[in-house]
């Protein structure tokens, strides 16, 4: 993941707030971390590189979604496609990474994930978003004691 993290466009994600006081970059790194720990805890047979890269890129939309003028339409519905287009512009992606980025907002968006990795990131994204929005830990998942 180091080459991705060093990319200047990835670093721009640290300029935008995602939930509460959490930046887009920190949120994406947290989702990647929990996706990895969750998968290891359950001994899941997944493509860990695609899991981590897809998690890092799932919110690669590069605008402040809190400012209506910064984007068109409803952010929750549109940002997966914007993130995917941005990711394709700067990086070569696997089909699993595309699946993760495109479907992480399901069921808000109509198309469900197709891969195990995309389901994992979708679930961990919701978990991390809830914690960031509430700005506290409301409950500890069993696998968190290993992190």
Automatic annotation (TrEMBL):
Top-rank taxon, per record: Bacteria
UniProt-listed Pfam families: HD (PF01966)
All residue ranges annotated as the HD domain in the record: 26-126
Gene3D superfamilies from the UniProt entry: Hypothetical protein af1432
Record-given protein name: HD domain-containing protein
Species, as recorded: Candidatus Cellulosilyticum pullistercoris
Organism placement in taxonomy: Bacteria, Bacillati, Bacillota, Clostridia, Lachnospirales
